[in-house]
Structures are given as C-alpha cells and as structure tokens.
Amino acid sequence: MQSKPVDVLVVNFNTAGLLQPMFDALRQANGEQLASYLVVDNASVDNSLERLAQVCPEALLVSNKNNVGFGRANNQLLDHLKGKYALLLNTDAFVADDTLAKTIAYMDEHPECGVLGVRLVGREGDLQPCCRYFPTPFNIFLSRTGLDRFFPGLQMVDEMDWDHASVRECDWLPGCFYLVRREVLDQVGLFDPRYFLYFEEVDHCKRVKEAGWKVVYYPHTTVVHIGGESSKSVTELEAASRQISTYQIESELLYFRKHHGLSGLLLHMFLVSLGDLVLALKALLKGRGWGAIKACWRHSRTTWSLLFATRFASQPTR
Known about the structure:
The protein has helices spanning 16-28, 31-34, 48-55, 70-75, 99-109, 137-145, 182-188, 200-210, 229-238, 241-285, 290-309; strands at residues 6-12, 35-42, 60-64, 85-89, 93-94, 113-121, 168-169, 177-181, 214-225. The protein is an alpha/beta fold and 318 residues long. The chain has 2 domains: 6-132 and 170-229, Spore Coat Polysaccharide Biosynthesis Protein SpsA, Chain A (Alpha-Beta Complex); 232-309. Strands 1, 2, 3, 4, 5, 6, 7, 8 and 9 form a 9-stranded mixed β-sheet that branches.
C-alpha cells in the first residue's frame, strides 16, 4: 500500500475537548487521502485517550506514562514516519480546507524548502506572529524592557511590520503548524531533546538553515491557532503557572549557550539582570506597587538559579 504524502504528528496533553474539531478540520482538508495520523499522549489526566479512540481510531498512538515534554514526544514518532513530509500540528491549531493540499503542493514545487509555515490567526481572526527572527541576548533584552523603539533597524523576534501576503524566507516558524521535509529529518533530525518546552523549533530551524535548507512562510492558506491550551491545562491541573515561565527561561539559557557560546550566555545573563533592574525602576516610577518590583526580582533569581542548576546551560534539569 502506497504511503500518504504527509504524516501528521500530534502531541496531546490534557486537550481532550480539542481533538474532535482538530481532526474534523484535517478531514475537511482531504486528510483521509493526504495524511496519516500519529499521536503521542503526554500522560494526560483528562479523558484524552478515550476521546482519541472515538475521534480518530485509525491514528497510531504512543501513550506516555510521564510528560516527557513537547520535543521528546515528537521525536518518539520519527521511527514511524512513512510519508514524504511530516506535519507537526498542535491540538489547538485548526487547518483550513485547502491547507494540506496547498502546502504539500508548494513543498513539491520548491525542493529547496526544508520547513514551511503558514498564516496564523487567533480565534477572532487576529494575526499572530508567524514568521520570526532568531532571538539574541540583545533583542530579547530590548523586547522585555520596551527599549526596542530606540533601535528601529534591529530585527526583533516577533516583527509584525511587514507584508503578510507574500511568500518569504524567515529564520524560524512556530511549532503549532510546522511542515518538514522528510529529507531534512533524515539529515538533521528533529528536536534537541534537552528542550522540555519552548525553543525546540527555534533551534531546529537554525540547524535546518545551517544545513543549507530554506525556512519559508507561506501566506496563501490560514490556520486558526487559539493558543495556550496545553499550558492552561498545566496551570489548572498542576497549579504550575510559574513553572511554565521556568521552562521558557531554562530553554532560553540552553539555546544561547548552544548557539552563542559561553560569552553569549554571560552577555544574556548580564542583560537579564539589567533588564529586571530597568523594569523594577519603571514599576517604581509609575507607582505599580511592590508586587511588580518583586516580580522582577523573582525573574532574576529564577534565571540565575537555573544557570547554576543547568551547569551554565550545559545540561537540562529534566
């Protein structure tokens, strides 16, 4: 039996209510002819497994006893790939009727394209960042402090002031809709397992581009991404809203050490501390209260704590 052109990789974590509309959207996009479905359930504590059996019984399912993180869960599916392409799709991302056909056709016609992303909008149709520049210690600092307005020529991570109606190359794409050529996966692999959550696709796109492939934003189809559902479930089910930011801080440290070296990591740490000082002074001058000032202190303390816990970002904590 001939394999279908795309394997859709889905990592589910406590989003049982989204499985039906997500798979319905895929089927309306001719998924039965174009796609095979591969799902990892990351130790959900809702009724995700029961819902999945009802909604998509044909999916290949890997059920984890523990939450291994987003990147590692996707990596678990690599040995099961059969198609020419792999589509990483969040459970809170809903494809349009033409999404699969158009993006597969573009990849077929442009063999130099290694990773493809699409136009992303929110629930109300609001445009989301969907074609991003690589983070650096400096642009992260400017973005956090609001000082980016003094550097109009600098490439910020979430730069929105450009024509979203044209195909364009970019640095990296969000992982909620992430179409990858199988040859790319054979050459550079998928995600670095050290990232538990956040920065997986940033790191992957950097490696893809270094290997000579293009990362492309394709605007001629739209995916609705409501965002934050797995993170929301973590907060509700584990009371871990602070932990989410901890995941992001740790991944940021690991990324800067890997791609900017020890000197870049130390520059980042200096700018984190300086940024928290700037934000605390702003809070003080604007009378926002001690809560805002303490939040800056907690952020610096957490970042420095994770620097040592990761042995200067040379290894993950989980």
